[in-house]
Predict the 3D structure of the following.
Amino acid sequence: MQNGYAGKFLQVDLTGGVCSSFTIQEERLKKFIGGSSLAASLYLERFNLDADPLSAENPLMLMNGPLVGSGFPGSSRFAMAAKSPQTGIWGEAACGGNFGPELKRAGYDGIVITGKSPHPVILSITNNSAEISSAAYCWGKDIYETTDILKAPDKNIKVLAIGPAGENRVIFSAIANDKAHFIGRTGLGAVMGSKNLKAITARGNQAPGKANEEKYKEIFKAAIAEIKNSAFAESLHLMGSDAAMDLGMMTGDVPIKNWTVGEDFELSAKLSGPTLTETYLTKAHACSNCPVACKRVVAVKDGPFRTEEGPGPEYETCCTFGTMIMNSDLAAVIKANELCNRYGMDTISAGATIAVVMELYEKGIISLEAADHLDLAWGNMEAVMALLGKIARREGFGDILARGSVSAATHFGAGALDSVAHVKGLDLPMHDPRGFHGMGLAYMMSNRGACHLQHAAMGMEQGMVSWPQLFEMKEDYDGKTSQGKAQLVFDSENYGILGNSLSLCHYLLYCLKPETVRDAFNAITGFDFGFKDLLACGARDWTLKRGINNLLGITVKDDVLPKKILTVLTEGAAEGSVPDMKLLRDEYYAIRGLTTEGVVSKEKLLELGLPELKEKLYP
Amino acid sequence: MATHKAFTQEWLDAWKQKIAGSQEYKEIAKEWEGSVGLICNADPSKSIPNPVYLFTDYWHGDVRDFLVCDEAKVQTAKFIMTGDYARWKQVAKKELDATKALMQGKLKLKGDLTYVVRNVKTINKVIDLLTEVQTVWPDDV
Ligand code: SF4
């Protein structure tokens, strides 16, 4: 363990109840680095892409990157990946917290889980060994209860768990690390549930080594100084990710009333980061080794939405359970967040799905009877709380919603689909592409469906970062222009994906100089990568996942923005503006090396060193 | 329309007048309390031989003192924003958004960042009104 990697991966066959390990050659690590990139390369090589996402055949993978466990700021992230039950294509999500570093201390760079246990189980990993045991005592319990039970013998045990939503295969169910950090998107909680795997625990005591300790110390100091000097980091520490709310309302970034309203300053003032800080914040919390500490710990002490002290909502959640459904009560957002956390559901898709049914209810497409007599009027938070429980337990109307927004809308008639804002089946994150056309393209082309974290388009287009050392970029972009945005998205994907492969939090990617990131990677791994090599890894990752998606049937017909986003707003900063989908896509395809059908070209596959994928795409 | 040399008292007075005359500003800034000190670092190559210190004071939609001042006075402000000449010029011409400049570290803020974020609309309006002042920049002369 002298190069950031633990040196082996855990293989778990839940059908046979067998755990073993395998290694990966350095050459492959240099190509894919870590995280979901490495997972995608294993997926293509070893697994049946046609497998049903909720079948025993679909593997669930968890991967660290080389920075995890190094102590470098923001390097606690790990990725999980599988074919997604929500989208039917490549699915992945990442989170911070402390599980990744602990897994590495326990001796593993990642886990590949296959098969299905005949009964609910827990996978426990301790210093180079793993054990499968019965989960009978915590199956059916929520995530907070499960985590408390599993940590009871030793509070230093790190827990990854699903809740009732994952057990019941709600297709947007999540996986939680120590209650506060979520593998939220693409429904990987349902994949874990389909394998009867309730939780994974890790405990280890082997500190990962670095190739060049002395050099690393210098770089670490520089990184801390850069963070201290960053107003962006300060805003995250003071106000959390919800610091974005006030500014977002000014720039047209915040979606309102299921993407139909362009501006509502009264609403954002009640839901913003400063308001959260002044009202319900009890303390800031950090992922392992992060000096920024953007995570919120909150408590609602009284009123109908009382909660115990616990993890607070992110910006996205303040939108999905706030602006999107016309709720201005921050306490209710906190309560909805707590319920999603306990049941184990992605707060973006859960809230977005509820926003869709509220719109359909207003239009008379869903009746009071069809909604199990819940009054789905905008902002009715009692109904929202009840609905969240019904979704997690798949009861009545909740069972329809548990299949996701696209399926739920389809259930209520083809016209209802226009109420859903999704790309490739994944609900849009809470940044409106009408104010930022580059974000629209990034949503269209993200390999897991609409995503704000598979690239750094937001940082670049909204002017939060300046990286002239990496590629040509402007100091300021006009958000409401489509021309030229393809290059921005291409560059931002390559660097953003690289951050994911390294397992570096994007907030830190925004705060740190690219030189510092590059030098930390080289000092830890002993590799000698320049910016060009690093960006090539980002490009390779994107292309590999696109190729996998091509094999799963994705073509140009899927690279589209939803009708919601192609409909103009009549007020606010994004008024009158919609992304020029065709222009964005045509320019992007040319830069990315995609055919007019949206398939990765042979030349591009060879250029990026993906001959195995070429064999499969062009047999 | 009269033009004013940047960073002079006349220029500040013209800016103050624009703000005081804006009904929209009065509405947006009704919650804002307190002064903002602006420091432009010296840049002899751009005809700024010494640092420039400006003191601007706002109170619930009204405007109070707008002064070219000394360092001691600027340090009494509730918020202090510091930056290089080139950045201030970009901000004043709306070529660079002030909030983005803060996030990118192109301008530095001393003071309560939470308050500034909450009142970002007020700040943007003040800058918008500055763009309406016909300004002559020292390095353009
Ligand atoms: S900035 Fe926030 S999310 Fe990122 S590593 Fe730090 S605490 Fe975690």
User: Anything to note?
Assistant: The pocket of iron/sulfur cluster is lined by residues A 74, 76, 96, 236, 286-287, 290, 292-295, 505, 507-508 (CB under 6 Å). The CA atoms of residues 465 and 510 of chain A lie 6 Å apart. DSSP finds 26 helices and 17 strands in chain A. The first helix of chain A runs from residue 26 to 32.
